[in-house]
Amino acid sequence: MARPDLIPDDEGAGRFLPWVVAVMVFFAALASAAGMSLQQATGAWRQDLANTLTVELPAAGGAAPAKLAAATKALRETAGVASADLLSQAEIARLLQPWLGGGELIGELPLPHLIDVRLDPDQPADLSLLARRLAKIDPGLRIDDHQLWLGKLMRLSRSLQWIMLVCLVMIGFATCAVVIFGTRAAFAAHQEVIELLHLMGARDGYIAGLFSWRALATGLRGGLIGLAVTAGALFLLSRLAADLEGPLFGNLSLSALNLVSLALLPVAAALLTALTARGTVLRELSRIP
Amino acid sequence: MVRFENVGVRYGVGPEVLHDITFHISSASFHFLTGASGAGKSSLLKLMYLALRPSRGAVTLFGKDVRNVARADLPAIRRRIGVVFQDFRLLDHLSVFDNVALPLRLAGEEERRIRNNVTELLDWVGLGDRLDDSPSTLSGGEQQRIAIARAVISKPTLLLADEPTGNVDDRIAHRLLRLFEELHRAGTAVVVATHNDALVKRFPHPALALDDGGLRSAEPPAMAG
Predict the structure, then answer these.
(1) S-S: B7 plus which of A69, A181, B57, B182, CB 3.0-4.6 Å?
(2) What is the count of structural domains for chain A?
(3) Residues B89, A196: C-beta atoms closer than 8 Å
(4) CB contact under 8 A, B98 and A203
(5) Which residues contact A219 (CB under 8 A, 6 or more apart)?
(6) What is the tens place of the pLDDT at every residue in B123-171?
(7) ipTM for the complex?
(8) A29-70 tens-digit pLDDT
(9) CA-to-CA distance for A45 and A24, rounded, in angstroms?
(10) Domain-located, residue A54
(11) Are residues A257 and A120 in the same domain?
């Protein structure tokens, strides 16, 4: 004979708990996915831009081909520089195409001359020496090591990740509040049963366990519903992001570890629900002599 | 086994519903707890089954002053006490079998042993064919027998019954008292709260008589059963 449920099935606030947990897990998963995706992207951006420089000569100015050839030669002769390649105007136009389109506008714009420089990661280049050499060729030659842009991007990315983390914490607090409210309501609804168990010698932990096991199952059920909805939403978002052409969105993706973390969210939600229910019941029981 | 010393009880800031209660009940004794309605019988029983704490004085159960017992140790004391509540307090969402099995399950007994003991006891109280029924489908007398079966299934050291004969006729009341006497002879200390003076006169056991929250007659040497 199977052991019966000593606490009757809830027909009150508890009925809605799985759906509340589902919504919370959905928001938590979206926030987590956004945070992890950003982290992944910033890592990729940093990787892409590390050990690279761009040397720029503004469009205005004469004798550009000779100066550019001299600059490229000087770069290649500098210790720590792995390669230095002058970009053709066609290549520069292709780089600008995502922002300016492929029309005639690009051809009419005074595009700067660019030299793409790759640095040897094992042999740090002396950038101040390099700057002095280039200045001798033409004071207008400018070195861009992308650090300013990368730094701003990183700060933005980190700020967004903190906001996601705050969102997660707030979602956790909201979930706890809902569980506490629901558990108190269930406790009040079944007060007579609980008091009887208490008077018969049931330990507080045993009674709390009756609630927390049920909350665990409820949390897991709600969490899985929330995760399923999140999976659909992320799939849709990934399809939409794939349609966007651009270097930024290209890096927005989730690793296998990220996906495993997301898959564990229902478990985390179930544990949070169960532990909160347990704590609430223990607190309520402490008021019974 | 049970010792009260100058015990007083008040609910909130109201007057004392019990005052200066002092008595001693030895093991394997049988006592009536008498008094008019509102005399404090239920409050006194609540003190004995630890549903209530005294506002003053000392309550000692099984040699332990309950004021000094850690909360974690109270369940073990409660499991030694069987209670027949005045309103039975049966759980309608459980079957008759599961209601009676409750104390054994809380004590962590093996399921096979629970099945044997509960089935045997319910046969004995004449409800062997109602194991799977809900208590709400049974008569008042049958519900009372379930409540008594639940109180005695774990062979408690102390059995407390609050007005167990309040809802039954004299014939059933006598049968119940005979049942309690059998338990008493088997070694259980029994305290039966009742306002049925005729019943008390027919069964020769000492009585703790409550009157307006005070103990009118409590003669410790004579009370030891």
Answers:
(1) B57
(2) 2
(3) yes
(4) no
(5) A17, A18, A21, A266, A269, A270, A271, A272, A273, A274
(6) 988 888 999 999 999 988 889 889 999 999 999 999 999 988 776 777 7
(7) 0.89
(8) 999 988 888 888 888 777 777 788 888 888 765 557 888 888
(9) 31
(10) no
(11) no
Our CA-based measurement puts residue A275 at a distance from the nearest CA of chain B, in whole angstroms, of: 20
Q: Has residue A8 been placed in a domain?
A: no
Q: Which of B5, B89, B90 has the alpha carbon at shortest distance from B47?
A: B5
**A134 and A154 belong to one structural domain:** no
Residues of A with CB below 8 A from B47's CB?
A: none
Domain boundaries of chain B, sorted by first residue: 92-150
Q: What are phi and psi of A85, to 5 degrees?
A: -125, 130
Give the contacts of A231 (CB within 8 A, at least 6 positions apart).
none
Residue A174, domain member (yes or no): yes
**Chain B residues within 8 A of A6 when measuring between CB atoms:** 91, 94, 102
Amino acid in the structure at residue B33 = L
A170 in the same domain as A109: no
Most B CBs within 10 A among A194, A199, A282, A287, hence the mutation to make, goes to A199
- Structure tokens, A94: 């292709």
Residue numbers of the domain that contains A163: 13-46+150-285
Q: Do A17 and A78 belong to one domain?
A: no
Residue A2 lies in a domain: no
Residues of B in contact with A201 (CB under 8 A): 75-79, 103, 106-107
Contact in structure between B176 and B143 (CB atoms under 8 Å)? no
**What is the three-class DSSP state of B93?**
coil
Q: Which of A193, A194, A200, A206 should we substitute to test contact with B (largest number of B Cβ atoms within 10 Å)?
A: A200
Q: Does A8 touch chain B (CB under 8 A)?
A: yes
- With CB atoms and an 8 Å threshold, state whether B72 touches A289: no
Last residue of a domain, one of A115, A139, A163: A139
Q: Residue B76: its chain A contacts at CB < 8 A? A: 201
Count of CA atoms in the C-beta half-sphere (13 A) of A177: 7
| Residues contacting B223, CB < 8 A, separation 6+ | B23, B24, B25, B26, B29, B31, B206, B208
| Whether the Cβ atoms of residue B21 and residue B57 lie closer than 8 Å to each other | yes
